[in-house]
Design brief:
The complex is a heterodimer of chains A (about 325) and B (about 250). Chain A has 10 helices and 1 strand. By secondary structure, chain A is mostly helical. The two termini of chain A are about 20 Å apart. The C terminus of chain A is likely disordered. Chain B is elongated, with a radius of gyration of 24 Å. Classes of the chains: A mainly alpha (about 325), B alpha+beta (about 250). The structure holds iron/sulfur cluster (3 copies).
Chain lengths: ~325, ~250
C-alpha cells in the first residue's frame, strides 16, 4: 500500500495525543500551571495536527463534513465522530482543569474512554480490510492501542519531569512496561505478517482470475502501459528492498534506544528530563518508520491481477 | 446510506465469457467514451501526451498465460470491471454516504456530490474496480451504464451497457441474475459461471465463464492428411463433373 506521509503522521501523532489525553483524563497529570497548559496544548495539538493531516490526504476536503454521517456502517465515519466528541469532552474537562483548578473526575474519565475508543476506531479502518491480509487481524487494533499507551506515557513522563512535577518516576516505569508490551505485540504482528502473503490468504493470481482451476497463471500483458491509480495506491513496490533496514531503524529508534534511555532516567538521579525527552523523540522517529512499513509492506489483493507479490514471501521478523 | 440493502428486487450485472474474449480492448474504450460524456464528472487523463500518461478507466483488460499441467500454455484475455457485489465492502466503508447500492436493481454507484475523495472504498474493493479521478477528486466506478439501460431516448437495442453493445466477440452479456430464466442466469448455470476471489466474501453479481478446454494438440507423427474431416466434401452433380474433369487436366 502507498505509504502516504499525511496518513503516517496522522496515525502516529494522533495516537500519542489521544494517549496523553486519556492519561490526563484519569488524573495522572501534575499540578503546576505550566505543566497543565503544556500538557493540554500538546495533547490537543498532537491530535489536531494528526486529524488535519488526515484531511490533507483527501482529494475533495471540502466535502469532509459528510464524513460524520455514516457512523452506523463506516469505521472511518465513526473515527471522525469519535475524534470530535473526544476533543469536545476533553476540551470541557481541560477548561475546568486550566481555569478553575478543578479536575472533574467523571468528565475526565469519559474523555479518557472516548480517546481509547477513537484510537481503536482508527485501527479498525485498517483492520476491517480483508483486501489487505497483513492488516486484517485483531493484532492491528492491539498494536495501535499499545503504541498509543506507550507514546502517551512517555510524553507524560517527560512533561512531569521537565516541569519538576511529582510522579515522573513511576510514570516512566509504566512507560517502560508499556513500551515492552507494545513491541511484543508488534513483534507478534510482524510474525503473522511474514506468513500472511496474498497467496496464503487465498487471494493470489489464481483465485483473482479464477484461472487457477485450469493451470498455473502468469500475468502476460498489463491493461495499460504506465502505472495507474491502482498500481500507485495498492501495488506499491518502491522501497520494499529497504524494508529490512527500515525495520532495524524502527526497532533501534522505537524500542532499544528509548528503553535504554528511560531505564537510565529512572535509575540515575541526573538529567532525567533530558533523557526522557531524548527517549520520546527517538520513539517517535521509530514509530514513523514502523508506520511507513505498516503501509509499504502491506499487499492488497488487487496486486494479484497485476501478478505482483505472488511468489516472494515478506521479510521475516529481523 | 452506506448500509447495504437486505435484498434487491433485481440483480443486474454482467457475464464475461473468457472463452471468446479476444482481448481487443474495445469494451474498455467504449466504456471510457460513454462515461466521459455521461454520469458524473468526465473520466480525466493526466499527462495524456507525456511520458507517463495515466487516466481514469472503469474497465480494464488484462492478458494472462495459463499453463495446464499436461497441455501447452494458452493466453486468456480478462476484462475487469465492477462486479456490483451483493456484500459490497466498498459501500459499507464509505464515511460520507457517497457510495451506495440501489435496492431496486443492485447497481453500486457513487454520488459524486458527497464524495470527499478519501479513497477508502478503493482500498476495500478486492477487484480494483474503483479509480480516483485525479482531476475531479472523486471516486469513479462502473455505473453499469445506468444512463443507457433505462434511457428512453435511445433505440431499444442500445439500452444495454456500452461495453456489451460494443464487444465484437460477444464476450459480455448483460441481464438480471435474480431471474433464473434470464439469458445470463442460464449461461451461468450451463457453463459453470464463477465468482472472482470468493474467499473475500463479497458475493459478486457479475460472473465469469472459464475458457473451454482446448482440443488436444495433434499427436506426434500424424500429418495434416489425417484431418480430412476438415477438407470440403467432394461435391456431386454438375460441380462434381467439373471437378473431376479439371482433375483429369491437372
Ligand atoms: S467490485 Fe469492487 S467496487 Fe464493485 S461492488 Fe464489488 S467491491 Fe464494490
Ligand atoms: S472516496 Fe468517496 S465514495 Fe469512496 S469511500 Fe471516500 S467518500 Fe466514499
Ligand atoms: S457497464 Fe458501462 S460503465 Fe460498466 S464497464 Fe461496461 S461500459 Fe463501463
Amino acid at each position: 500500500m502507498h505509504p502516504a506521509l499525511s496518513v503516517i503522521v496522522f496515525t502516529t501523532l494522533s495516537g500519542i495525543g489521544f494517549g496523553l489525553m486519556s492519561l490526563l483524563g484519569i488524573g495522572l497529570g501534575g499540578d503546576g500551571l505550566a505543566f497543565r497548559w503544556t500538557a493540554v496544548v500538546l495533547a490537543y495539538g498532537f491530535a489536531v495536527i494528526g486529524l488535519l493531516s488526515s484531511v490533507a490526504h483527501l482529494k475533495s476536503p471540502g466535502r469532509a463534513i459528510y464524513a460524520f454521517s455514516q457512523w452506523r456502517s463506516s469505521w472511518l465515519s465513526r473515527e471522525g465522530v469519535l475524534s470530535i466528541l473526544t476533543l469536545g469532552v476533553f476540551g470541557l474537562w481541560a477548561l475546568a482543569y486550566l481555569f478553575m483548578d478543578r479536575n472533574i473526575g467523571a468528565l475526565g474519565i469519559l474523555a479518557a474512554v472516548l480517546a481509547v475508543v477513537t484510537v481503536y476506531s482508527t485501527s479498525m479502518v485498517y483492520a476491517q480490510l480483508r483486501t489487505v491480509p497483513h492488516w486484517a487481524t485483531w493484532l492491528t487494533p492491539a498494536v495501535f492501542l499499545a503504541f498509543g499507551a506507550a507514546g502517551g506515557l512517555m510524553l507524560l513522563a517527560t512533561l512531569l519531569s521537565v516541569f519538576g512535577e511529582e510522579g515522573a518516576r513511576p510514570v516512566a516505569q509504566f512507560a517502560l512496561l508499556a513500551l515492552v508490551i507494545a513491541w511484543v505485540v508488534k513483534a507478534a504482528w510482524w510474525q503473522r505478517a511474514a506468513k500472511t502473503t496474498l497467496v496464503a490468504a487465498g487471494s493470489g493470481i489464481g483465485e483473482a482470475t479464477g484461472l487457477g482451476r485450469i493451470g498455473r497463471v502468469r500475468a502476460f500483458e498489463p491493461p495499460h502501459t504506465s502505472p495507474n491509480y491502482l498500481m500507485r495506491e495498492m501495488a506499491f513496490e518502491v522501497g520494499r528492498k529497504r524494508a529490512r533496514a527500515l525495520r532495524r531503524v524502527a526497532i533501534g529508534a522505537g524500542v532499544v534506544l528509548p528503553l535504554f534511555l528511560v531505564i537510565l532516567a529512572v535509575y540515575l538521579p541526573i538529567a532525567t528530563a533530558a533523557l526522557l525527552l531524548l527517549a520520546l523523540v527517538s520513539h517517535i522517529a521509530g514509530m514513523l518508520a514502523e508506520r511507513w512499513l505498516f503501509f509499504a509492506e502491506a499487499r492488497h489483493a488487487v496486486a494479484s491481477f497485476y501478478g505482483i507479490g505472488q511468489a516472494d514471501g515478506d521479510v521475516a521478523f529481523l | 446510506m452506506t448500509t447495504l440493502p437486505q435484498t434487491t428486487n433485481r440483480k443486474l450485472g454482467l457475464v464475461i465469457d473468457l472463452d471468446v474474449c479476444v482481448g481487443c480492448h474495445a469494451c474498455a474504450v467504449a466504456c471510457k467514451e460513454w462515461n466521459t460524456g455521461a454520469y458524473g464528472a468526465p473520466l480525466s487523463d493526466m499527462d495524456a501526451y507525456g511520458a507517463e500518461p495515466s487516466g481514469t478507466w472503469l474497465n480494464r483488460v488484462h492478458s494472462y498465460e495459463v499453463k495446464p499441467e499436461d497441455k501447452p500454455a494458452q493466453i486468456v484475455h480478462f476484462p475487469r470491471s465492477c462486479l456490483h457485489c451483493e456484500d459490497a465492502p466498498c459501500v459499507t466503508v464509505c464515511p460520507t454516504g457517497a457510495s451506495y447500492k440501489r435496492s431496486e436493481d443492485g447497481i453500486v454507484l457513487v454520488n459524486e456530490d458527497r464524495c470527499m475523495g478519501c479513497g477508502l472504498c478503493a482500498w476495500a474493493c478486492p477487484y480494483g474496480a474503483r479509480e480516483m479521478d485525479m482531476d475531479a477528486g472523486v471516486m469513479k466506478k462502473c455505473t453499469l451504464c445506468v444512463d443507457r439501460i433505462y434511457n428512453d431516448h435511445i433505440p431499444q437495442e442500445d439500452r444495454v451497457p456500452s461495453c456489451v453493445r460494443t464487444c465484437p466477440a460477444n464476450a459480455r452479456h448483460f441481464g438480471d441474475f435474480a431471474d433464473p430464466d434470464s439469458a445470463v442466469s442460464r449461461m451461468v448455470a450451463e457453463r459453470g459461471g464463477y465468482d472472482l476471489m470468493p474467499e473475500q466474501g463479497t458475493r459478486p453479481v457479475n460472473k465469469y465463464l472459464q475458457p473451454r478446454p482446448k482440443v488436444d494438440a495433434m499427436p506426434a507423427g500424424e500429418g495434416c492428411g489425417k484431418h480430412d474431416a476438415h477438407a470440403p466434401a467432394t461435391p456431386g452433380g454438375l460441380l462434381g463433373w467439373l471437378d473431376r474433369a479439371l482433375a483429369a487436366l491437372d
